[in-house]
UniProtKB/TrEMBL annotation:
One term of GO molecular function: cholesterol binding
GO biological process: cholesterol import
Record domain START: where: 1-156
Protein name: STAR5 protein
Encoding gene (name): Stard5
Role of this protein: May be involved in the intracellular transport of sterols or other lipids. May bind cholesterol or other sterols.
SUPFAM superfamilies: Bet v1-like (SSF55961)
PANTHER family in alphabetical order: PROTEIN CBG07384, STAR-RELATED LIPID TRANSFER PROTEIN 5
Keyword Transmembrane helix set for record: no
Keyword annotations: Lipid transport, Lipid-binding, Transport
Source species, domain of life: Eukaryota
Amino acid sequence: AEAAAEQLRLYRGDPAGWRGCRSTSEVAVSWRPSAEFAGNLYRGEGIVPASPRNVWECIKPVAGGLRTKWDQNVKDFEVIEAINDTVSVCRTTTPSACMRIISPREFVDVVVMKLYEDGTMLSAATNVEHPLCPPQPNFVRGFNYPCGCFCIPVPG
């Protein structure tokens, strides 16, 4: 979990190579080739007119959280094992897509939540295997490289 958080910190601090691919008045998405796997990294950035605490309540990775209510790509989120107050092993499921052509997915990740001195909040995750969460029937087991969300306060 700590390694995933550090990787995200490095991504955030390195502006090199990001190319814009989509943007609206609310969000900008950019990408760059990954140095870790054969594929691309993607990041979305936007300013939400709300307090950082309220935004964090919508995105933080906790059982019973708001993410399953607003994110159509997250069907369920459960904590398999709480390691401590900030680190847990979690299972996230996604619904089928494209008229069920794409099967439902499940992801098992170790997740860390951090609060930095400047008020930035981070959830970072990466794939892990856990004996209490073997692959489930009717789901394709997905694999996450280091990923997550930053909630960064902006002036005003």
